[in-house]
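Lab notebook, design round three. We kept the backbone fixed and only want residue identities now. Task for the bench partner: fill in a sequence for the structure below.
Input structure tokens:
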């Protein structure tokens, strides 16, 4: 490291540094290009665009309805360690148990397994890459992405936007 390089960066893991870079790039591209709409399909919970805008905060709307991404390390849920359930912020659908939450070092709440009936997935080809998008099975809201670099027993990392979730203590 050189004297001009911030000391804080010397302790960052590659994953954390990459997460910051990707999040900044994705946020900038989404803002510049306009985010694409939520997952396709018919979902049990549905509202008009005007209703969603009334029901959600601007951050929640951007993530859940426009497939946006929050800045890493900005979610209060990142440091939520109580027993309980992480639910969809749009409709309250239970998505993840706190027992499956882990610190991925990426800056977003991460889980190694969703609850049955909580989430669905689809292929996301935005920004020149192929990723697996995770959405709520009740409203179709965008929650984040799933990757194959998580811990046992599943090896999955469900990397979720904290503003798309709400925590319900046990």
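Proposed sequence:
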């Amino acid at each position: 490291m050189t004297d001009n390089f911030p000391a804080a960066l010397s302790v960052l893991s590659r994953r954390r540094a990459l997460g910051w870079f990707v999040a900044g790039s994705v946020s900038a591209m989404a803002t510049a290009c306009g985010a694409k709409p939520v997952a396709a399909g018919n979902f049990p919970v549905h509202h008009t665009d005007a209703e969603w805008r009334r029901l959600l905060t601007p951050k929640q709307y951007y993530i859940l309805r426009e497939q946006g991404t929050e800045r890493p390390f900005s979610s209060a849920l990142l440091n939520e360690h109580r027993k309980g359930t992480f639910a969809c912020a749009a409709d309250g659908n239970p998505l993840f148990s706190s027992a499956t939450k882990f610190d991925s070092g990426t800056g977003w709440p991460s889980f190694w397994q969703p609850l049955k009936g909580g989430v669905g997935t689809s292929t996301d080809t935005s920004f020149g890459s192929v990723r697996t998008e995770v959405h709520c099975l009740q409203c179709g809201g965008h929650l984040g992405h799933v990757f194959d670099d998580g811990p046992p027993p599943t090896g999955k990392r469900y990397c979720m936007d904290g503003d798309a979730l709400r925590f319900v203590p046990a």
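Keep this in mind before ordering anything: The chain has one domain: 7-169.
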